[in-house]
Amino acid sequence: MAIWQFRLILIPEDVLLKKYEVLPLKITQDGAEDFPWWSDRQPPIAFEKGIGAIIPQVESWSTSMRMWGVKHGDEAYVCYLDDDKSVVEEIGFRVDVRALAGGFVRDICAFTRNLKCVLLTGDYEILIPEESMVLAAISHSTSKKYLEDPVSTLKNLDTRKFEYGARPKKIED
Q: 68: phi > 0 → left, psi -120 to 50 → alpha, else beta; which?
């Protein structure tokens, strides 16, 4: 993922509410990455056509993934638990903040609502799928700050934030 891309991951709203009882504003990194969001509920058959209506499909580098869009630009992906692509593990979008297209964000929000999901940002914030909310989150993001002041933004980065799945190491006594 490029620093100018804003990550959005779809999480089924009913699963999130079952886990937290209320819609949280933010969840922990562990809570976001270690929980199998799609294990109890799978998206409808042929949901990938909805992504294809937003952005063109491209060849994937993985047998257990489908991908759409342009590398380091506007992208979408679906990760599956198997090479047969029958069990969804994650559905995500990456918005290219360099060439922010309101239509792309609007389409992501409509697609997310159709799947009865909410959006999880790279900062683990939960967003309802409304264009204005997503655009506001983008305007305060590291991706946007990088475009405005790359040197300062890079100097102030916590690199662990961009290492998906990376956590601080525990020191054992």
A: beta
CA dist 172 and 146 (Å) reads: 36
* Whole-number Cα distances in Å, 91 to 30, 67, 126, 144, 171: 18, 10, 15, 23, 34
Measured on CA atoms in the order 127, 101, 56, 143, is the torsion positive or negative? Answer: negative
Reduce the DSSP state of residue 165 to 3 states and report it: coil
- Residue extents of the structural domains in the chain: 5-157
DSSP string across 25-84: SB--HHHHHSS-TTSS-PPPTTTHHHHHHHS-EE--SSTTEEEEE-TTSSEEEEEESSTT
In this prediction the pTM is: 0.83
Placement of tokens 């662990």 in the chain: 160
d(CA 4, CA 126): 20
Q: Residue 143's pLDDT is what?
A: 65
Paired strand residues for 50:
none
Q: What is the pLDDT of residues 35-64, one digit of tens each?
A: 999 998 999 999 999 999 999 999 999 999
Say how far apart CA 76 and CA 72 lie, in whole Å: 11
Alpha helices in the chain (DSSP H): 13-20, 29-33, 48-54, 102-114, 131-139, 142-148, 150-155
How far is Cα 105 from Cα 25, in angstroms, rounded to an integer?
Answer: 20
